[in-house]
Design goal:
The chain is mainly alpha-helical. 81% of the residues lie in helices and 0% in strands. It has 13 helices and no strands. Helix 5 (59-78) runs antiparallel to helix 7. Residues 99-148 are annotated as: Disordered.
Length: 435
């Protein structure tokens, strides 16, 4: 049986014992390993040339490393480790929960015993309670018997609770032991897989395998497909960022339009108020909104102004990123948006309601035009993004298929080299008892 623990921790003596025990190699081989002080940390790094030239193994003996690891992994996989490990985890969790519940039951049981003892003292010899003298000896004896029975029941309940804690403590220890054992098997399988993969990689890095026309063709095809997929990935990144910028710009413009529409409503309220004043007084006025309306209107306009300016900046970045193929957005509107499309309203001084409403309406129309053009640009960018994404996924799938084909070829070649049987027996595998 192989030494316990990871291979990297094996001593020189453990490596020698493994060679003669597990691999059934001659003692002379083990002696050569001892002479060269080959410990577990050195074992995995040995090349086939090290084994045959420096340590005196034949090629068939060197090949036993692959065969032994292959057999070990098949035996471990036969244990169905994932399901057994999950069962062990659940059992450990269940045992811990049961133990915690049993531990919570002990203090109340102890308290019940303490209370029963105090009650029993009242009715035992020398005890006193109200009405003791009046009740007579027969009644006193009856109460003493009842209190003794209650004390016995409480003591028995405490004993059961404490025994349950002891039993469940032992059960939890066993559950954790089993969980550790299955985790050890999982680690053993992972170590064997890594070790075999390192050995296989070195095997196929040898000149004979490096010159294999089949492997060379598959590896070349894989690299070419991966390069093409990476190129498409760059397109995905470019158009993904451009689409994100344009969609963000469209959202900002939509919010600005809603704000502008609200501003027009406030203007209509102001004009209505001015018309009512004119009708009542006979004096024409500027029909301006009241102070609170002005404050609210300016706040909305500033917010819309900032949103449109930010949208223009995003659109300009997208244009720079995606190039001249991007559908154009009106440059005059873009220029006005970057400068502040509502500056004339925000800083225009005293302005009549009609003039202000006209200025806002003109700005709304410009922003609506810009929104339509930005949406078209976003749709164009999204369409290109979808094409790049489809091509990238297609090429990545083809590269994965070539990788799988190469791996299948390597596996087939390794099986042939090992002369391994198709089905391996699992006799001798340690069977854990609990699960």
């Amino acid at each position: 049986m192989a030494p316990s623990g990871p291979v990297s921790g094996w001593s020189v003596e453990e490596v020698a014992a493994w060679l003669t025990g597990e691999l059934s190699l001659p003692a002379a081989v083990a002696d050569a390993f001892k002479e060269n002080a080959v410990a577990g940390g050195d074992l995995v790094g040995l090349s086939d040339d090290d084994l045959t030239s420096e340590l005196g193994l034949t090629k068939l003996q060197a090949r036993k490393r692959y065969r032994q690891l292959d057999q070990q992994m098949r035996e471990l996989r036969a244990l169905e480790l994932p399901s057994k490990l999950e069962q062990a985890r659940r059992f450990a969790v269940q045992s811990r929960q049961q133990l915690e519940g049993a531990q919570r039951a002990v203090p109340p049981a102890r308290q019940a015993v303490s209370e029963a003892q105090e009650e029993h003292k009242k009715y035992s010899d020398g005890g006193w309670y109200p009405g003791k003298v009046l009740g007579g000896k027969e009644k006193q004896q009856k109460k003493a018997d009842e209190s003794q029975a209650a004390l016995d029941a409480a003591s028995a309940n405490l004993a059961r609770a404490e025994q349950a804690v002891r039993d469940l403590t032992a059960q939890l220890a066993e559950a954790e032991k089993q969980l550790a054992a299955w985790r050890g098997k999982e680690s053993e399988l992972a170590t064997a897989q890594r070790t075999q993969q390192e050995l296989v990689n070195r095997m196929f890095a040898a000149p004979a395998w490096s010159a294999s026309p089949t492997l060379s063709a598959l590896n070349d095809a894989t690299r070419a497909l991966e390069a093409q997929a990476a190129e498409q990935g760059r397109g995905v990144a470019t158009y993904g960022n451009g689409t994100k910028l344009l969609n963000g710009a469209a959202q900002k413009l939509e919010s600005a339009i809603k704000a502008l529409q609200g501003t027009q409503m406030l203007n209509m309220m102001g004009m209505g108020r001015g018309m009512r004043i004119t009708a009542a007084t006979g004096r024409p006025g500027m029909m301006q909104p009241n102070l609170m309306q002005n404050v609210a209107e300016m706040a909305i306009l500033r917010k819309a102004n900032d949103a449109v300016a930010s949208a223009a900046q995003d659109t300009a970045q997208a244009r720079q990123l995606l190039g001249p193929g991007l559908p154009q957005v009106n440059e005059e509107i873009m220029k006005a948006a970057r400068a502040g499309i509502f500056q004339n309203v925000l800083f225009g001084g005293v302005m009549s309601d009609i003039m202000q409403a006209a200025a806002v309406a003109k700005s709304v129309k410009a922003v609506e035009q810009m929104l339509g053009e930005v949406r078209k640009a976003a749709q164009w960018s999204q369409a290109n993004l979808s094409v790049y994404q489809h091509k990238q996924a297609e090429l990545s799938a083809q590269a994965s298929a070539k990788q799988a084909e190469a791996q299948a070829y390597r596996t087939s070649a390794l099986r042939t080299a090992l002369e391994a049987p198709v089905a391996a027996a699992t006799t001798g595998v340690e069977q854990l008892s609990l699960i």
